[in-house]
Design goal:
Layout: H1 7-18, H2 23-36, H3 41-48, E1 52-53, H4 56-66, H5 75-89, E2 92-93, H6 95-107, H7 115-132, H8 145-157
Antiparallel strand pairs: 1-2
Helix pairs in contact: 1-2, 2-3, 4-5, 4-6, 6-7
């Protein structure tokens, strides 16, 4: 029996996580799961319906998003609560819900207590913004200390 440590399963799962809109990736993973059963059959049904099954870390992330502090009566608050509820009861999300979960975790990172979740949200943010094609959000440009020093010296020379 295949487990989560199987490299093929990990590679297929990462391909689905990288581009959740790709129906081909989801169906290939569903076929693999159906044949080798590293996770339950509910995951196969979710993948075939176009939904993304969540692993334990992602369920933790959804719960953490549900515990964030939000302004009253905002879309973010309603969405975060629905995501947290869906993740704990059905254990799957649609591709857009999955991507927006990471965008909101990055946006409300100061309310999240777990550093591992903050790090994962920061790593996935740029790809999520790219896949969702959000015009008003810009990818994160991380500047190192050396880059800011170099820019300061260039400005001093001018």
């Amino acid at each position: 029996m295949t487990s989560f440590s199987d490299p093929t399963f990990k590679a297929l799962l990462e391909a689905v996580r990288d581009d959740p809109f790709s129906k081909t990736n989801r169906l290939i993973l569903a076929d693999f799961v159906e044949e080798h059963r590293p996770i339950g059959m509910a995951a196969v049904v979710s993948l075939r319906e176009g939904r993304i099954p969540l692993l334990s870390f992602e369920i933790q992330c959804a719960k953490a998003l549900g515990c964030c502090n939000f302004a009253p009566a905002t879309w973010d608050k309603r969405f975060a609560y629905s995501i947290a509820d869906r993740a704990t009861s059905k254990y799957d999300l649609s591709p857009k819900q999955y991507l927006w979960m990471w965008v909101l975790l990055r946006r409300y990172r100061k309310s999240v207590k777990d550093d591992e979740i903050k790090k994962a949200a920061g790593e996935r943010y740029n790809r999520c913004v790219e896949l969702l094609d959000i015009k008003h959000l810009k990818p994160i440009n991380r500047r190192t200390h050396k880059q800011t020093e170099m820019q300061a010296t260039l400005l001093d020379e001018v």
